[in-house]
Specification:
The chain is of the alpha+beta class and 411 residues long. The protein has 9 helices and 24 strands. Strands 13-11-17-23-22 form a 5-stranded antiparallel beta sheet. A hairpin with a 2-residue loop joins strand 8 and strand 9.
């Protein structure tokens, strides 16, 4: 394998040796260190291969002994050099095109928003742009999880935000909050706002349709606003009163009560096992200069000194005069240095859990009490990023009012 690579890099030449007793030349070449291989007899000729570095010596040896040496083929990089030189512009353009494609694919050029019905798409895109996701944004300038968390903070009408990057396209998936309808004045049911297992039922008005231990899904009726009267078995009534009760019909009410259930939430967090970030070193520089209509004059500070990495703040004062505008600049520079840190698996799990819990707590609301929590590791041990899914269990009131659109008679 190594010889083949060397032959391709150095180049090989196929030759045909003409003359009598050709083995003489083969032996003489071998004794002089000229490497020859793939020797084949072809009629009166002997065909074989020789490296480019030994061709001139072999040719001189053949001519000195009265043999003819004809070239029948050439292989290897040296013989493509002229092609590269003639097509330099083409190959250079191809390399530039590939590099441009790679650079362009490192930016976001298209943004798509899905899942919103009441929240304006423009408002969601404007919020995403505020936190670094916009057309033309470099992918290395924003963190997916940080953008999701920031958008949830700014857009209180959303309960979930997911940002996916596919090539040059950013897809933002959102879920809007379902607010309870407390403005219902007429008859209504209390229905489940989430899936869960019933823990406690308190029906103040209406008929309870569930009991502790029942599994319910979102939208199931918990306390019905349709009440079916029942005859008490403990009251003895006359035949006339029994006839009156047979005529009783179901009636509707505005269901009221509280239904607590065990529900579950999931969140996602991640942590790099090796992390580098820029921090302030504490070193500062300040420069003051004035810009006149004619030239810029340096007033104070260290003109040439700077830092490899820094953050700066500029205060500008403009003084207008008949001669033109005079601008006074005060430049403050703070040095930044790279700080590297390696996390153990235990530390990374803790950080990933904390990062998952932040958006999870916002989704749950601050009044929820967590009963149980579980962390599932999604990444492999060899991955540079530890990814974790956090599942938490809470007990909360899942009842919400829903108007009754069908009469109790089914009409």
């Amino acid at each position: 394998m190594a010889n083949r690579l060397f032959d391709q890099v150095g180049g090989t030449i196929k030759v045909a040796l003409k003359g009598k007793n050709q083995e003489k030349i083969i032996n003489m070449a071998a004794s002089r260190g000229i490497y020859i291989w793939d020797i084949k007899k072809n009629g009166d000729n002997m065909n074989f291969k020789v490296r480019t570095s030994g061709f001139n010596a072999l040719k001189a040896l053949s001519e000195n002994n009265g043999y003819d040496l004809d070239v029948t083929g050439k292989q290897g990089l040296p013989f493509y050099r002229h092609l590269f030189q003639r097509r330099l512009g083409f190959f250079t353009g191809a390399l530039i095109f590939i590099a441009a494609l790679y650079i362009m694919s490192s930016f976001v050029w298209f943004i798509e928003v899905n899942g919103n019905k009441k929240t304006e798409t423009g408002k969601i895109m404007l919020t995403a742009a505020k936190h670094g996701v916009y057309q033309g944004a470099a992918k290395w300038n924003f963190s997916r999880t940080e953008v999701e968390e920031a958008m949830l903070r700014d857009l209180t009408q959303l309960s979930y935000v997911k940002l996916d990057i596919h090539g040059v396209k950013a897809r933002i998936e959102v879920v809007e909050k379902i607010l309870p309808r407390n403005d219902i004045a007429g008859p209504c049911h209390l229905v489940a706002t989430r899936d869960g297992i019933i823990e406690e039922v308190l029906a103040l008005d209406g008929q309870a349709g569930v009991k502790p231990g029942d599994v319910v899904k979102k939208g199931d009726i918990l306390i019905s606003g349709v009440v079916f009267p029942e005859k008490s078995p403990y009251i003895v009534q006359s035949p006339e009163e029994e006839e009156d009760e047979e005529g009783l019909k179901p009636y509707t009410v505005k269901a009221r009560g509280q239904v607590k259930a065990r529900v579950w939430y999931e969140g996602y967090g991640e942590c790099r096992l090796h992390e580098e970030k820029m921090v302030l070193s504490g070193r500062r520089l300040s420069k003051i200069y004035i810009e006149t209509p004619w030239k810029t004059v340096f007033l104070k500070g260290q003109r040439e000194k700077s830092y490899p990495f820094y953050q700066q703040a500029v205060d500008k004062t403009v003084i207008k005069s008949p001669l033109g505008d005079f601008r006074l600049y005060r430049l403050k520079m703070e040095e930044q240095v790279k700080e590297a840190r390696d996390f153990s698996e235990k530390e990374a799990v803790k950080i990933a859990r904390e990062r998952a819990m932040k958006p999870l707590m916002r989704k749950m609301g601050g009044d929820k009490k967590i009963n149980e929590s579980r962390v599932d590791i999604l990444s492999r041990p060899s991955d540079p990023i530890l990814r974790a899914r956090v599942s938490v269990e809470t007990i909360e009131d899942i009842a919400a009012a829903q108007p009754i659109n069908v009469s109790p008679n089914g009409n």
